[in-house]
Design brief:
alpha+beta, binds ligand DP6, globular, 16 strands
Length: 318
């Protein structure tokens, strides 16, 4: 039991900024949708010759991976032997498609399995958060809220399921604009926004009400309300990026073309709302019946388009 599967999640209300960088505690609460389809598959060998990471068939150096395994061992009060980690994403890594979320979620589940530990989902989520904030949400399926919390040690800043995947059959159409790695990683980007954007305090104020509105829209299965809140969170986050020094420009020309297509679709009465993360890809929230229309409209501006529904939380391969 040492191989785990985890799916990426896309934030409907964004996490952008940390109130504690060492513990990876967020400056704002967030709410996400775990996707079906794409996945990270990670195998951990607990006891190897040396620490070794193979990501997408290439040897890599990522101290965070072994730091998270150290935390896992510390948490269970056991020694950590050298580990071999082999991980594979069936989608582009580090391109703003939430590969760190599924990556660290799969790592902690596989690591705990390999070490023979029976940890709760909450404990695994907390450990995944230390690798990458958004990873704490990929432990759960469907719609997931990551609470802001107030405790300095982060014990109340936990992810919690809002509704399971079967609650609401929505779709996220992903228009892939670039498969290359992003110019500035999320950690560095959010730190730059926090330190230099004059809009930062407004961003902090917006977080809690946006999450509450999104939660209510999910419970009521109100796509227009959810899409509107998602766009508000997205563009507010981008406002802190554009007004940072130097500015963070994750968009490509095709990103803007896609945003215009989404606006044109809505003007035609199609229920389509756009979001982006720290990268140029555009993700469109919609209902299954509109997927084809939306994919046809977006295809001319994208390398490829895919549609994913709500997916499950991270799990050990039997
Ligand atoms: C824009 O979780 O990748 O995708 O905690 O520094 O590893 P770190 O950042 P990460 O940030 C994700 C930011 C985002 C929005 C979101 O997923 O909520």
């Amino acid at each position: 039991m040492n191989t785990a599967i985890a799916h990426p999640n896309i934030a409907l209300v964004k996490y952008w900024g940390k109130r504690d960088a060492a513990l990876n505690l967020p400056a704002v609460p967030s709410l996400s949708l775990t996707l079906s389809g794409w996945h990270t598959r990670t195998q951990v060998q607990w006891g190897a010759e040396r620490d070794e990471l193979i990501l997408d068939d290439e040897p890599r150096t990522d101290p965070k991976v072994f730091r998270v395994l150290d935390l896992l061992a510390q948490h269970a009060a056991i020694p950590r032997p050298p580990c071999r980690v082999v991980s594979h994403n069936d989608f582009p890594t580090g391109a703003g498609l939430a590969s760190s979320a599924s990556g660290f979620a799969a790592l902690v589940v596989a690591g705990a399995g390999a070490a023979g530990l029976e940890l709760s989902r909450g404990e695994l989520s907390m450990l995944a958060r230390r690798g990458s904030g958004s990873a704490c949400r990929s432990l759960y399926g469907g719609f997931v809220q990551w609470h802001l919390g107030t405790a300095p040690d982060g014990t109340d800043s936990v992810a919690e399921p809002v509704a399971p995947p079967e609650h609401w059959d929505v779709r996220m159409v992903v228009a892939v604009v670039s498969e290359g790695p992003k110019s500035t990683g999320s950690t560095e980007g959010m730190e730059r926004s926090r330190k230099s954007s004059p809009l930062w305090s407004t961003w902090l104020e917006l977080g809690p009400p946006l999450v509450e509105q999104a939660r209510q829209a999910v419970m009521a299965r109100d796509l227009e309300a959810l899409g509107t809140v998602m766009e508000r969170s997205t563009y507010s986050m981008y406002s802190t990026m554009f007004t940072a020094t130097p500015p963070l420009l994750y968009w490509q020309p095709a990103t803007v073309a896609l945003l215009h297509e989404v606006a044109a679709l809505r003007a035609r009465g199609v229920g389509a709302w756009a979001t982006m993360d720290a990268g140029p890809q555009v993700k469109v929230l919609c209902l299954p019946g509109d997927v084809q229309t939306i994919q046809s409209a977006l295809a001319p501006h994208a390398l490829r388009t895919l549609a994913h529904g709500p997916g499950p939380g991270a799990y050990l391969e039997p």
